[in-house]
Amino acid sequence: MWARKSAIAPLRKNIPAVRAAAVDNAAVAKYTDFVARSGVRINNYIGGRFVAPVAGNYLDNVEPATGEPYSQVGDSDAQDVERAVAAAEEAFAGWSRTAAAERSRILLRIADLIERDIEKLARAESVDTGKPLSLARTLDIPRAASNFRFFATAILHTETEAHVTDNLALNYTLRQPRGIAGLISPWNLPLYLLSWKIAPAIACGNTAVAKPSELTPMTASMLCELCDEAALPAGVLNIVHGTGPNVGAPITAHPKINTISFTGGTVTGRKVAEACAPLFKKVSLELGGKNPTIVFADADLNAAIPGAVRSSFANQGQVCLCGSRIFVERPIYQNFVDGFIDKTAKLRVGDPLEPTTDQGAIVSKTQLDKVKFYIELAQQEGGRIALGGSAPDTINHRCRSGYFLQPTVITGLPVSCRTNREEIFGPVVSITPFDSEEEVVAHANDCDYGLASSVWTQNLSRAHRVAEQIHTGTVWVNCWLLRDLRVPFGGMKQSGVGREGGNEALRFFTEPKNICIAK
To answer: Mean of the pLDDT values across residues 487-491?
Structure first.
């Protein structure tokens, strides 16, 4: 029943993969561990062991840069979720009573191991997602280590409230682990966001049943290997691979999982909320975004233009925080557009494993088709493609069938059109002029989403004033994606419910209990 103690089991059939004969450049040739992992099966991690799905079904795991499957991942179902819940329930009794110092020690060890294997994990993330290796190496994997390190130390510095009640009693508050947490993470920042949930959940003494995206499962499986090496007790972390309907839905509906943390699309988030509400589960939903970037005439364009380019196209625009709507004050509009297009045109789209690549592949053909649909829609709505809009001309032989798209800049769109209101989640941005502060605040808020925004101005009073009026959970001023793990993170409106990060995460994964002792 149980597979050998490895995340990877050999396939019985041969899968088209990244073979040595297909490698046609020196950069790719270095990644022999991926040739070794090609044609393997990624299994679930339940009760401290790697185990095949009960039904024996698997999905192809496609490398976006080539359009070819290079491994397979378990296509699990409710039976596998049930086994994971049983393992988590058994582990909770011991883990919830483990001293905070010991939990901290294990999480710090996991952080150390992530940093030790940063190159291996970065390669895995790049191959699995299509993002540039350089981005995975400098952002995704270091942040995963930081997540474990932050929450490992945070639990050592908690405090409790105490109240003397009219000299009659002493009240104090305990914060205790809630039990089994269901953790569902997306495909765009696989290890980064999965660790953002796992670390605080288990640091607080909970056990977890986690579902990474079936599109990007590799680093989640590799994390399990590191947890095993760090001596995380069996059953504290359980990973079940598979689709949303087959695995995500059973997790959210399971009566023994009382806490759900979900990051993903708004449509799916609504289904999660509907499933959890009758069971009175504690739920955190980090959902979509249609984030505004506001550039005032007094902005430092030497900082604003590269900042806006980065916020528009980081990770091929596949970050929920990307600024896909740019509003520029009219006196500098044309200068900004010219500078933005010039800077964007220099981004190199290519093989994610090549060190000079700025823009890699879109995560899947389905997502690529969605992005192309919105580019066509934008033109129907009166927009002009000022740059991009099609596949790049220069892609190496290895990536000839991959899911690539040039960074796309659209001008001339009405503020309230579908392209400017619906989440695209790709390398597409619109640029629109505005004439007054009041007008641009109205434009920024004219959207069903409210996750993040950025404001570029050298007027400090205006920065405070506009930031207060914008309906988003985060407002960056003269910067973008400058993150502090202590601050609350989340969105308004259809961008979600609840907050993650810092004390907000520690509160979410614990249950407060008041104890009143009479004098």
So the answer is: 97
